[in-house]
Amino acid sequence: MLVVPFTVILLTLCGIVLLMYFKIKHKQAAEARERQYALTDPLTGMPNRRAGIEHLTRQLEKSRDSDAQTTVCFIDVDKLKIVNDTWGHREGDQLINILCRLVQSKLRETDLCCRFGGDEFLIVFDDASIAEASQAMARIEEVISAHNQNQTSPYEISISYGFAEYRATADTSVEDLIEQADRAMYQNKIRAREAVVFRAKLYP
After folding, report:
1. Helices (H), 39-79
2. CA 179 → CA 51, 97, 165, 184, distances in Å?
3. Measured between alpha carbons, how far is 47 from 54 in angstroms, rounded to an integer?
4. Structure confidence at residue 114 (pLDDT)
5. Closest CA to 114 of 178, 60, 165
6. What percent of the chain shows pLDDT beyond 70?
7. Is the domain of 75 the same as that of 164?
8. From CA 165, how far away is CA 201, in angstroms rounded?
9. What is the rounded (10 degree) CA torsion for 61, 168, 170, 187?
10. Structure confidence at residue 36 (pLDDT)
């Protein structure tokens, strides 16, 4: 009868356990990478629409539990289609990436900006009122203006945006809040166009 030394059995068992451990860790790492890809915009590396909605959902739950304020800002990049049609999608992609960098440079670590669609972005301001979010957007507009003055491309970066503030006393869903900010953005865009036309009539 063949007798296997105890040390051999122990080493074999250790090898099996280690193999199972590394397989589990490899699977977990692969799942984490897949989730990261699913939540990341491939062009900019920023959080995508799904990530933004998940984050906003958590923020509203936090606001309901602690009465903290949450304000969202819906951003639309002005005339991106014209840039794409005139100078090509590579230039349009570059514009988007530059804008992302400029926006991120003026946000707090607790705020989140996601690419919501092709030319749309959503910022979730953590524990901030509309007044505080407006101040942050004013700083973003300043850095965009400074970039436009110093760059040599044939077009300028311009954005339109609108706010919506969550109130725990109101029965407002994530979708409702985003829609309110989207409507506010559209109204501001229309007013800005009307202002340009008005100035053009005053100063032909």
Report:
1. 49-66
2. 17, 25, 11, 9
3. 10
4. 97
5. 178
6. 77
7. yes
8. 36
9. -90
10. 56
Residue 95 lies in a domain: yes
User: What's the domain range around 149?
Assistant: 49-202
In a domain, 4, yes or no: no
The domain tally of the chain equals: 2
Which residues lie across from 159 on neighbouring strands? 77
pLDDT digits (tens, 9 = 90+) for 39-53: 899 999 999 999 999
Does residue 15 sit in the same domain as residue 68? no
Identify whether the C-beta of residue 72 lies closer than 8 Å to the C-beta of residue 125: yes
Are 97 and 157 in contact by the 8 Å Cβ rule? The answer is no
Residues 17 and 115 in one domain: no
Nearest to 72 by CA among 159, 144, 134, 118: 134
Is 101 in the same domain as 190? yes
Number of helices followed by number of strands (H, E) in the chain = 6, 4
| Same domain? 28 vs 103 | no
With tokens 């800005």, the residue in question is: 192
Identify whether 177 is part of a domain.
yes
Catalytic residue among 119, 126, 127, 171: 119
Tell me if residue 171 is catalytic. Answer: no
